[in-house]
Amino acid sequence: MLILCTLLHLAVDGVCGAALAAYAVEEPDYASIVYYFHLYSLIAFGFQWIAGWALDRKMSRILPGLALVPILLGLGALPGFGILSQSVLLGAGNCLFHVAAGILVLRRYPGYREPGVFVSGGAIGLGLGLSRFCGTAVFLCICAAATAVLLFRGISSSLKIEAAEIHDHETETFRAAPWISAGAAVLLLLCVTLRGFSGGSGASCHVMFFPCVFAAGKALGGVCCDAIGWRRTTAFIFILSFAALEMMSLSLSAAWTWLPAALLAFASNMTMPLTLRLLHGCCLACPGLMFGLAAGCLLPGTFWRESFSILPQGMIVIQFLSLFLAGSAVRRTEA
Amino acid sequence: METARWSTALLTAAIETPLFYLFGCRQVGDCLWFALINVMSNLLLNDTLRVAPLESCFWGILLSGELVAVVLEFALCRCLLSSVRCSGGGKLFLVVLSTNLASFLCGVIWGLLLT
Predict the structure, then answer these.
(1) Cα–Cα distance measured from residue A245 to residue B11, given in angstroms and rounded to the nearest whole number
(2) CB-based contact B79 A235, cutoff 8 Å
(3) Which residue of B has its CA nearest to A234?
(4) What is the distance in angstroms between the Cα of A221 and the nearest Cα belonging to chain B?
(5) Which residues of A fall within a CB distance of 8 Å from B79?
(6) Which residues of chain A have pLDDT under 70?
(7) With an 8 Å Cβ cutoff, are A249 and B2 in contact?
(8) pLDDT tens profile A129-180
(9) Do domains A2-155 and A176-330 have the same CATH topology?
(10) To the nearest 5 percent, what fractions of chain A are helix, strand and coil?
(11) Which of A118, A90, A100, A123 is nearest to A16 (CA)?
């Protein structure tokens, strides 16, 4: 199921990226492009917590929700609808997919690796779509096929997604004291918000380089957490970020300026599976809501990255301390 | 400037790491990690202080910066040091606080001697 969800994530973000990129290429007015990209982001990220809350309340809504995704995206990819309707449809499809698949992954797997691998597909898909490597048709075909297989498996009950009870491994790993969980959730959401501002870009040899760095960071962050534990991984992320900042202060030749930016982006993305799993641990009964809140916290970075700046040294310290405090509060075990 | 930045950080680590050893943390690996943590926190603190508006509230900013550095070092020690990672954090926090106080006082005395 993880491979299916990851492939679907790649296709869904690919459709959205390709459809919006096609509009951006034809539209001469930059302000208009920004407006519709922001509208899409607002719906795709900002409404996930509502969709997640609705799906959490009734898990049986997940399969119909997933079935709706290719339809919404298919309609959104049609230029005939006009860019306003397209942005709304693409945003809605993206929003619905993320929470539905996010719930499946968070509920089905106990570790960090799976959420990391799942979210890494999106970075690649968005990169491929925005750079117009493939058109919307290719992504839509993949999306329809993967959804069909997922629905078939869901209907044949092999996914067991109807079961809303919290698993033993979850209660063994996470504490449930409400005020501790609430405090930890605030810290984790702060960490996600800061990640939204870090973004990451720079002159590189290939247009797909940074999307691949993002994807590698997300996937390896989860693998690292499972291999060496969340504490050592947070420290490792901090050390990597510190190394990137130190490299930035060196006078590197023009050919190597991408390296510190890539390293910082890689380290920042490594926090993603950690924040997702720990947020889920803050409220085991509401994986969709927590996933949606995390997505919503990426919005400030999307809207105000240009106008708001934070000292990078301060950012990596706050990110590390937030993760450390939240993890220490929520986790029962050291692993 | 780059040399001065690193020499300050290394000097701080040179003061704090032996103290850390004397306070009972005797594993060589842990002492090396502690030295690295010290260098990192010192470089970050000094980089932040360089851009902070120190004229308006020098001691307030310096002390809050030092406090953040202590918390950062404690958290990193909890994550990386094998001998203290799974034990209670109270003693470790006191050790980190003491080593930082010692290096801070050394810095203040050194500053007074220079002036």
Answers:
(1) 21
(2) yes
(3) B79
(4) 16
(5) 231-232, 234-235, 324
(6) 155-176, 199-205, 332-335
(7) yes
(8) 888 888 888 888 988 898 888 888 776 665 555 554 555 555 555 665 778 8
(9) yes
(10) 80, 0, 20
(11) A90
Q: What is the pLDDT along chain B (115 residues), one digit of tens a residue?
A: 667 788 888 988 898 899 988 887 778 888 899 999 999 999 988 888 887 776 777 778 888 888 999 999 999 998 888 766 545 678 888 889 999 999 888 888 887 877 6
ipTM of the complex as predicted? 0.89
Domain ranges of chain A: 2-155, 176-330
Say which CATH topology domain A2-155 has.
Growth Hormone; Chain: A; (1.20.1250)
CB–CB of B27/B83 below 8 Å?
A: yes
The CA distance from B70 to B65, in Å, is 9
State pTM to two decimals: 0.88
Q: Do A252 and A259 touch, CB atoms closer than 8 A?
A: yes
Chain B contacts of A325, Cβ < 8 Å? 75
Which candidate from B43, B68, B80 shows the least CB-CB separation from A235? B80
User: Per-domain residue ranges for chain B?
Assistant: 2-114
Pick the CATH number of A176-330 from 3.30.420, 3.40.50, 3.30.1360, 1.20.1250: 1.20.1250
Burial environment of residue B114 by CB neighbours within 10 A (0 to 12, 13 to 18, 19 or more): exposed
Interface of B with A (CB under 8 A): 2, 40, 43-44, 47-48, 51, 68, 71-72, 75-76, 78-80, 85-86
Mutate to test the interface with B, among A228, A230, A233, A239 (most CBs of B within 10 A): A239
Tell me the C-alpha distance between A143 and A173, whole Å: 34
pLDDT one-digit tens code per residue, A1-31: 888 889 899 999 998 988 888 888 777 778 8
Residue A242, chain B, CB below 8 Å: the answer is yes
